[in-house]
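Each letter names a residue; structure tokens follow underneath. Both lines appear below:
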Amino acid sequence: MPPASRLMPRYAAEPPHDGVPEGAWGDRLRAEFLGAAQGIAEDAGEPGEVVFYPDRSWHGRTYVPASAPTATGNEIYGYVAYVPGGEDGDPSGFLARADFTEETAERNPEWQLDLSDEVIGSWHGHADKVAAMTLVWGRSLVAGGALATALLGGVDVDQCAVEADRFTLLAPDDYGGDLLEVRLYSAAGDELARESLYE
């Protein structure tokens, strides 16, 4: 096999390790997320039930995306990040981000994927090119989705199994003129949906 013609980070994040946060741990993450949302609640509306997405870990931090519909029909979205505690220690260094959007799946019935994203770092490549390391989380709005993938310039750079119609990706974006695209596949490998982050 010849060497790669262009270098880029592929499968840089650890796969999901934990299921949907529950019990006291779920309460802790929910409180962190809603705390971050307090500053925007007046414009976004009162948040409803918080939904979590699969966790992804990168550069020593674990990211758990979350979203919540609001009483005004908007959606609050964001994530909670923390430093895992190891075998005996508790997680620490909690950091939560939240924003809101009026563009929801309920207002856009033609959508096949409901995506949110946030740049969480950078990767410096050849010739001073820099990739935006981007956390992408979303829901499948079509039946039968089993695997979500991220592609950059036609190259697979991350993937995540779909759990309860939800998935999380962590992949390079905006690198050397290439932009990130998300694709959804069935268990049989059939493509069900695709969407650019920039559509």
Observations:
- The mean pLDDT is 93.
- The first strand starts at residue 51 and ends at 52.
- The radius of gyration is 17 Å.
- Residues 45 and 70 are 5 Å apart (CA to CA).
